[in-house]
Amino acid sequence: MGVGIGMPGFIDFQKGINYTFLEIKDQTIIEYLTEEIKLPVYIDNDSSLIALAELRFGSVHHKKNVMVINIGWGVGLGLILNGELFRGHNGFAGEFSHIPIFDNNKLCECGKTGCLETETSLLVLIEKAAAGLKEGRLSSLPSNFPSDYYEQDYEAIIAAALKGDQFVVELFSESGYNIGRGIAILIHLLNPELIVLSGRGAAAGKIWEAPIQNAINKHCIPRLSSNTKIKVSTLGHDAELIGASVLVMENIEKNNTVIKNKTV
Amino acid sequence: MGVGIGMPGFIDFQKGINYTFLEIKDQTIIEYLTEEIKLPVYIDNDSSLIALAELRFGSVHHKKNVMVINIGWGVGLGLILNGELFRGHNGFAGEFSHIPIFDNNKLCECGKTGCLETETSLLVLIEKAAAGLKEGRLSSLPSNFPSDYYEQDYEAIIAAALKGDQFVVELFSESGYNIGRGIAILIHLLNPELIVLSGRGAAAGKIWEAPIQNAINKHCIPRLSSNTKIKVSTLGHDAELIGASVLVMENIEKNNTVIKNKTV
Question: Distance, in angstroms, between B79 CA and closest chain A CA?
Fold first, then answer.
């Protein structure tokens, strides 16, 4: 029926443009693919799609104001406000990964320093694990860690975390606490009823909850934070795929309604 | 026709309760006043009302996604999202004043440390001015500064700023830069088309713009921030009053519609 694409980057969903990745001359990625595939094509930010999946089929179902955190190679955010996906003025809302909250002198890939992701993304977790092993920290991580493959390293740290490896659990706690500092800001600004931890990092499960709650306890006014629940998503890896298909279905439906109305 | 109240504090607009100020036994403030005045009474957070005033009669007119900053004794925020005032799950959204972004070991009145307002509110500005004068900084501030009256001190620093007093301009720049650091977070999260500086602090006028823009230039990704304009409100001191009357009119209208529909 159609093609839905989830990608990282600054994406204008209306215009079908990803300003960050894949430059195609004179055509948007949507125009190019529609021409080649002869099917309607839609694109949106990966974190927005994960939020859309949670909204229609996951933890957000029937809820109004929810923040969906996409723990992945960055730390994205999909905002559900008044029961709908909120995209902002240009479709760029939810740049949680780059809110400047650390004074850590670590250069982020965006060019700034101190962004949330410089202490919290799964990439940083893998880097910290590698550095710790080099310094002689004991861990059940495999001997070929870090490999040259992020995907393989990601699976290794998740497996170690689920087994309760102390060193890796420590890293997840630290990262979770720092994500929690960011979430404290979200709670103050947007007073959500629920925070959902989703994206590939959610595979580590409940291990995220305590350190995040810890940070909220320290950095939030209780009157506010007592109204917000924290939950780890159960959609797992599929969230983005489900979101991409929701994107297609909702837009095809909208277009059909427009066509029907025109016919009438 | 009715009474509209703007107050600081955690306010549930639906229930008519201010959880922070004025405890009235067994009755909400709304119930108490309605009984005494025999008119419909509505209450909302001061920053939300200022945003409502800007939305109906000020800089936000016909705009969709705008953050209205209430520079006052704290630094509040009214969020206009999708063309409407956004209040969050319990009506507590917009607690900009207490987002934790400084590592300054300054205790905030909320009980936490490092909140935005600990470096940026007009109260802090007055305190910093007083401390500077004590240390011998030259300034045209009146000899009785600080007086025992915040309102008088507020007028003194605004007058000095408008006259270009170097010491006071320096204080406004510092405060503006720090507000700008908070605004950088808002821009990343919500991708607004406009930031309006309102509330009593807006009386200092354009003096806010450069330091805020400076902070945005340093702390925001240009692709995002280039879509957001900064503007000082012209509603001035009246914003909150206008907002309170908008609150009354919109709710009386809603109630009348409900009554009409019932009659039909």
Answer: 9
Neighbouring-strand partners of residue B183: none
- How does pLDDT run along chain A (264 residues), one tens digit per residue? 999 999 998 998 888 888 888 777 788 888 989 999 999 999 999 999 999 999 999 989 889 999 999 999 999 999 999 999 999 999 999 999 999 999 999 999 999 999 999 999 999 999 999 999 999 999 999 999 999 899 999 999 999 999 999 999 999 999 999 999 999 999 999 999 999 999 999 999 999 999 999 999 999 999 999 999 999 998 988 899 999 999 999 998 887 766 666 554
B219 with A100: Cβ contact below 8 A: yes
Give the Cα separation of A54 and A72 in Å (integer): 16
Which amino acid is it at A81? L
User: Taking CB atoms and an 8 Å cut-off, how many pairs form between chains A and B?
Assistant: 125
CATH, residue B205? 3.30.420.40
Q: Which residue in A110, A186, A191 is closest to B89 by CB distance?
A: A191
Residue A42, H or E segment:
strand A41-45
Query: CA B99, CA A221: separation in Å to the nearest integer?
Result: 10
**Is B100's Cβ below 8 Å from some Cβ in A?**
yes
Is the Cβ–Cβ distance between B118 and B124 less than 8 Å? yes
**Structural domain harbouring B241:** 3-255
Whether chain A has a CB inside 8 Å of the CB on B116: the answer is no
Q: Does residue B63 lie in a domain region?
A: yes
Which of A63, A183, A188, A220 is best to mutate for the B interface (most B CBs within 10 A)? A188
Of B64, B95, B224, the CB nearest to A95: B224
For residue B79 the two structure tokens come to 């969020």
Q: In chain B, which residue ranges form alpha helices assigned H by DSSP?
A: 29-37, 46-57, 117-120, 122-134, 150-163, 166-190, 209-219, 222-225, 239-263
Please tell me if residue B110 touches chain A, with a CB cutoff of 8 Å.
yes
Q: Is residue A7, in this structure, part of any structural domain at all?
A: no
Interface check for B64 against chain A (CB to CB < 8 A): the answer is yes
- Residue B164 is assigned to a structural domain of this protein: yes
Nearest to A173 by CA among A196, A149, A204: A204
Q: Count CB atoms within 10 A of the CB of residue B232.
A: 21
Angstroms from B159 CA to nearest CA on chain A: 32
Q: Chain A within 8 Å of B98 (Cβ-Cβ)?
A: yes
Domain tally for chain B?
1
B83 at the A interface (CB within 8 A)? no
